[in-house]
Sequence to fold (162 residues):
Amino acid sequence: MPASYEYRVVPAPTRGLKGKGIRGTEDRFAHAIEDLMNRMALDGWEYQRAETLPSEERQGLTGVTTTYRNVLVFRRARAADPAPFQPRLLAAPEDAVSRKPAQAEPPATPPEDETPQDGATVDPGLADALRRRAATLLGGRIAGGTAAEAAPATDGRTAAER
Fold:
């Protein structure tokens, strides 16, 4: 299978680049191109060619001018091209075919007497506060009682005192 490439086109330098021991306009210009090509090579880009291409630019309100631009073309191989990868379907294990999916068990319900299983006692004031908050959040529908039982008393008494 032929390798696939990705391409990068960059504008060619228009000015020379100063450097140690480089004298003259032509040497500076060559140094600028060399520097650009070496920087691209560090990222894995391979130089292909230089092109001069036309570019239409707007001039004034209705005018168009053609300008020629010099560009450098680089390429590199695509990393891990997924096209040749062909996934295959694996056969199911023999014991998985005979096994049935497990039935979902209903969630366990807490005991009605509100006594924890470890023998600890529940603060009645906390239980009342939780019932009132649940009644507020559920709009009066609470488990184990009605909204009237869980609603806060206006005289400051708890439901146990009423």
